[in-house]
Amino acid sequence: MAFALSELQVTSSAFEHGQTIPKRHTGEGEDVSPPLAWRNLPGETRSLAVFCHDPDAPLVTPGGDYGFVHWILYNIPGSVTHLPEGADGYTAGPTDFGKTGYGGPMPPNGHGVHVYYIWVLALNTDGQFPEGLTLWQFLEKAEPNIIGMNRLIGKYERA
Question: Which residue, among 25, 104, 110, 29, has the nearest Cα to 68 in the 3D structure?
């Protein structure tokens, strides 16, 4: 499959695709993950992963990774069709905040609008990925099993 968009659709009742992420779901607010829903999963889907990445963040690691990882959640059963606000459970990997679990948008003051990509990946494996994987480690291991993917895009500018 490689990394190509599919028919999978990702939505949130908190904000529309391409619109501003509400303060509640940011580091300036209550810092809880937004509710997410998806549909049109490939029939062979056995597990899912969700992650939030800010490619506008001025961060490049020595390994060549870029942007800022705000959330990585994986080993989600393929039968799951949504995550509620403040979702936890499943397997959470470390973020670039140095913790596991969701860390909402909070670009540097005066840095302008950042664009956040909340991805949902459909996998054709049961999702027995080990705990503690960074986003980049997870993607390296999962890539051969990705059968569908798409994203919800949100924007945020720090007040």
Answer: 104
DSSP-assigned states of every residue in 68-132: EEEEEEEEEETT--EE-TT---SEE-B-TTSSBS-----PPTT---EEEEEEEEEESS---PPTT
CATH number at residue 45: 3.90.280.10
d(CA 89, CA 110): 35
What is the DSSP pairing of strand 47-54 with strand 19-20? unpaired
pTM of the model: 0.92
Number of domains present in the structure of the chain: 1
pLDDT mean over 53-78: 81
Q: What is the domain extent for residue 29? A: 9-156
Asked if the structure places residue 4 within a domain, the reply is: no
pLDDT tens digits, residue range 72-118? 999 999 999 999 999 988 999 999 999 999 999 998 888 899 999 99
